[in-house]
Write a structure and sequence with these properties.
Family: Belongs to the adenylate kinase family.
Order of helices and strands: EEEEHEHEHHHEHEHHEH
Number of strands: 9
Number of domains: 1
GO molecular function: AMP kinase activity; ATP binding
Helix content: 40-55%
Number of helices: 9
CATH architecture: 3-Layer(aba) Sandwich
Pfam family, one: ADK
Strand content: 15-25%
Bound molecules: adenosine-5'-diphosphate, cytidine-5'-diphosphate, magnesium ion
InterPro entries: Adenylat/UMP-CMP_kin, Adenylat_kinase_CS, P-loop_NTPase, UMP_CMP_kinase
Catalytic activity: UMP + ATP = UDP + ADP
Length: 236
Amino acid sequence: MYRRRLTSLPLFFSHFHQVKRADQLKIYQAFSTEIINPVESESSSTRNSPYVAFVLGGPGSGKGTQCLKIAETFGFEHIGAGDLLRKEMYSSTEEGAMIQKLMREGSIAPSEVTVKLIQKAIESAENRKFLIDGFPRSEENRTAYERIIGAEPNFVLFFDCPEEVMVKRVLNRNEGRVDDNEHTVKERLKVYKAVTLPVVNHYAKKGKLYKIDGTGTQEEIFERVRPIFSSLSSLV
Ligand SMILES: Nc1ncnc2c1ncn2[C@@H]1O[C@H](COP(=O)(O)OP(=O)(O)O)[C@@H](O)[C@H]1O
Ligand SMILES: Nc1ccn([C@@H]2O[C@H](COP(=O)(O)OP(=O)(O)O)[C@@H](O)[C@H]2O)c(=O)n1
Ligand SMILES: [Mg+2]
């Protein structure tokens, strides 16, 4: 038995007119989007394993801001990869010092370190629905997650934003971060384009990517995100 619903979603699947998500959804991009939810056929093992959305986008694209809204509205647990690393950075261990150096340079921390922190956060949460924000930032991050966690994300959100908008937001962020300065943001943008965008393309090819216009007000962007999560609420 299938539950059918018609919605008009502002989805932007970059390269596909028809996208098939292996787990539960079939989504056809058109003027309106049909979502077919095989609710009754969902096995209990699927229900018990964590439901994971990765959240990607350049520095300042609004990942953290939108994750807070999604978490509050749809009951997801927000795990910020950068937040986990920053916490570790202040732990006055050797690893903490290494993370601080990499963050200052705008480089990516070793995947094993980041994935282990994410794994701990998933395991210690009561929630089973997760937004993993700022991860995977490299193909190496992605394969390390698949190897250590033994799963792929259910889907991936990607906030698409022009560089000049991202830079302006980062330089106005004012959270005292070691990497929110003109020099590091330039490096981070280079890393984003060379190392993170291939991961975004990987998920686009797999039909797992929701590309969202990251310009406009926080509220406008959230209205683009909302239908994606509304359509899931009966599933997870
Ligand atoms: N739509 C928006 N318009 C203007 N400023 C924004 C918007 N979304 C987020 N910001 C601000 O821009 C900065 C970067 O946003 P953040 O969510 O931290 O991005 P990211 O996690 O992708 O780096 C923050 O100071 C945030 O308050
Ligand atoms: N998967 C990740 C995520 C963040 N990081 C590090 O943490 C920094 C800040 O990440 P973040 O996600 O908090 O940054 P924003 O994109 O939110 O501005 C990155 O520039 C990297 O140095 C990492 O090494 N690996
Ligand atoms: Mg962030």
